[in-house]
């Protein structure tokens, strides 16, 4: 059996099954949160990199 024919038959069967099922109702979790804009995360203060320390064997 050719693999392309097999995959084509499977995808056609899945599409037929999905078309026969009723659509899934969309539930709003909390409508009150939809109007609240997201606050940007506060940026941490800039910290410079620690100074380069010489190796202990120098």
From TrEMBL:
- What are the start and end residues of every segment in region (Disordered)? 36-58
Protein name, please?
A: Uncharacterized protein
Q: Where is the composition biased (Pro residues)?
A: 47-58
Domain of life of the organism encoding this protein: Bacteria
